[in-house]
Amino acid sequence: MFASTVMWLPFLVFWAVVQILKPLLHCQNGPVAIRISGLSLHLSTTSLNSLPPFLLRGVPQITRERKGGTVRRLSWIWDAGAVAAVGGMAVAQGVLLWAAVKGGTALWASLATSEATSYAMNLAKRAEIPLDSTSFSTGSAPPSDGLLLRPLLLRLFQYHLVDFMMHIPGITTPLSTLPMLLLALEHIPLLSTGIHLYLFLPTLYVSLPASTPATSQSPFTDLRVASAGVWHNLGMAGAVWMLSDEGGGVSRWMLEKGAMDGVDSGVTVVEVDEHSPLHSHLPPNSLITHLNDLELDSSDSPLALWRSYLSRPSPSTSVEDYTNLGWCLPSSSFSASPDLPNSNCCASTPVNSASHSLCFEAASPSSSEPFFACLDPVPFFPPSETIPRRCLDQSSCLNAGDETVCARPASKEQVLRIGVAADDTDGDGRRTVIWQGDSQDVLRQGQLGSFVLKSNTC
């Protein structure tokens, strides 16, 4: 609840400021115009009107004859887009018609069946339920199954080049430059370009004249302009498909040619939020190999394992699990705590102290009550050279001596150990980054991937 409130707070503050300054913002001075209507904000400018012709100055002035005038040879791209848009619209209408027929057929079958079928009823917990859960003949599917429309391209947009949300112009972000270039090719002037913000949903747009000499002479020009946005989005989707492993596999080809290094022993850090406590501990290209004692290379997809492990509710760190082993520690350091749940375990440590003590919990060999100790965990984690014996339960510590117990950080500590492969300057092995808090928050601290650009080293 608190996290969602914090997420909405900037938008609420922004719109509160906009409403307060509405008399000052609602203006049209020079090339910039601002218009506010309720929770809708329009910002437009004429400063970019000369940009498309400027960008096209480098395009060769090669033309070909067409009825009504000459145009650049570059226009064939949008000619193909117009044909593709018309074909796509026809296919879409066909799919809608097919869905309508299937829906009508399923509805008619459902009504006909309901009239011909009677149920034997039974009363259970004040709710009437049918004794026969299927009112249809054996082996036949209910009519509602006909309403299920299955995706045609299920795996088209499963990106494996970089496994995080991409910002792709024309797909996840607006694409406005290419349509403006087309307008310049067709000699259609821009009236203005702008951004429309409704609540927190932004859209970019261009304003065009209702009619121009070019459009009045060629209806096909109107078709090319109208279909340009769809055509550009389709082109960008095709480019992403070519990069994906399920598509053209260009990323796989780059990997084979040595442009990128594939990582199968963990996940690589792409970027960490600069305001995150992990920012200074996880620089870009860091290789994360462990979460607690879970080895990320135990899965064919370490990134998927990373996400699934952190997405689940924070597990109890005191639970006996092979992904969360304990340490065989001297029993003399532990004592029973009368206050549960171990609220006073490390209460004597000052808040501003440089100590990194954590409350450890161990099962008592002689009673059902757990033992607790406030200990410095740094010697227990890599790259320490004096790590105590690891254990799954108390029986694992029998060989370590009778005066030891199997201990783990207490549940209230919410400790997540992030194992990072050491770089060349640190030597072999790995280091450990300690995160205290909800493990699901780690997913929101940055972006990770499965590839890293190969660096040139001498």
UniProtKB/TrEMBL annotation:
GO cellular component: cytoplasm; membrane
NAD keyword on record: no
Annotated keywords: Signal
InterPro entries: MBTPS2 (IPR001193)
Signal peptide region: 1-27
BP GO annotations: membrane protein intracellular domain proteolysis; regulation of response to endoplasmic reticulum stress
Keyword Signal among record annotations: yes
GO MF terms, alphabetically ordered: metalloendopeptidase activity
PANTHER family assigned to the protein according to its UniProt record, in alphabetical order: MEMBRANE-BOUND TRANSCRIPTION FACTOR SITE-2 PROTEASE, PROTEASE M50 MEMBRANE-BOUND TRANSCRIPTION FACTOR SITE 2 PROTEASE
Protein name from the UniProt record: SPOSA6832_00924-mRNA-1:cds
Gene: SPOSA6832_00924
